[in-house]
Write a structure and sequence with these properties.
0% strand, single chain, 6 helices, 118 residues, mainly alpha
């Protein structure tokens, strides 16, 4: 079992990495070739990532410790899937769906994140 402090750090690290990727030139170039629906979903994910970062950075560990522990398995699974899909940007929709899955788990940890469904 990973300590709650390390889970919080690992989650933030993945959020930072994903935000960096989705703000990159290569992401934008790949996204240009996608349907409008995919581009809109990407933009929503970017907003959700930023909101999740702000909420998680400001969350006191004692207030989210139980949520981190109870969602550890899902958090690790969605992080692993996200890292794998980010390796290949040929399918932006898969990456966005992985981001959405990861964000939904983060939303369970910091329960006051009001993340709209994707």
């Amino acid at each position: 079992m990973t300590s709650p402090m390390n889970l919080k750090k690992q989650t933030l690290d993945e959020l930072y990495d994903t935000r960096t990727l989705m703000a990159s030139t290569i992401w934008e170039l790949e996204l240009r070739e996608e349907k409008k629906e995919i581009r809109e979903k990407s933009n929503l994910c970017k907003l959700q990532i930023q909101l999740a970062i702000l909420k998680l950075e400001n969350a006191k560990l004692k207030n989210i410790k139980d949520n981190l522990i109870s969602n550890e398995k899902q958090l690790k699974e969605t992080t692993k899937k996200l890292k794998k899909t980010k390796e290949n940007l040929d399918n932006i929709a898969d990456v966005i769906n992985s981001v959405a899955g990861f964000i939904s788990v983060v939303g369970k940890i910091v329960v006051d994140i009001a993340l709209p469904d994707l």
